Amino acid sequence: MQTSLIAIIGAIATIVAAVPTNDPPVKLCPSGLYSSPQCCATDVLGVADLNCHSPSAVPFSVSNFRDICANGGQRARCCVLPILGQAVLCQTPPGLGEQ
């Protein structure tokens, strides 16, 4: 009886240890057109952004994305794929409101 109980407890412990605990990656920008998270320095009329680059660290939340960009004096934006640092179409990430 004790052997069965120990075997059951061991099996349960093995199953619990095998369950993955990694959180899924944070979705910073919506799917589709505006799907590229960028830190941008200059905003032109709320549509075009200049001097953009990927965040310097991997953000763990949308507010962390904002903070990472702000540390470099830039704004967190969700852009259409930028070309040569010019992200022509950008918008504020969902959940941040206007910056």
UniProtKB/TrEMBL annotation:
- Keyword field: Disulfide bond, Signal
Q: Give GO cellular component annotations, separated by semicolons.
A: extracellular region
Could you tell me where this protein is found in the cell? Cell envelope
By its UniProt entry, which CDD domains does this protein fall under?
hydrophobin_II
Asked whether the keyword Protein biosynthesis is assigned, the reply is no
Extent of the signal sequence = 1-18
| Annotated InterPro entries | Class_II_hydrophobin, Class_II_Hydrophobin_sf
| Protein family (similarity comment) | Belongs to the cerato-ulmin hydrophobin family.
**Protein name per the record:** Hydrophobin
Organism for this UniProt entry? Xylaria multiplex
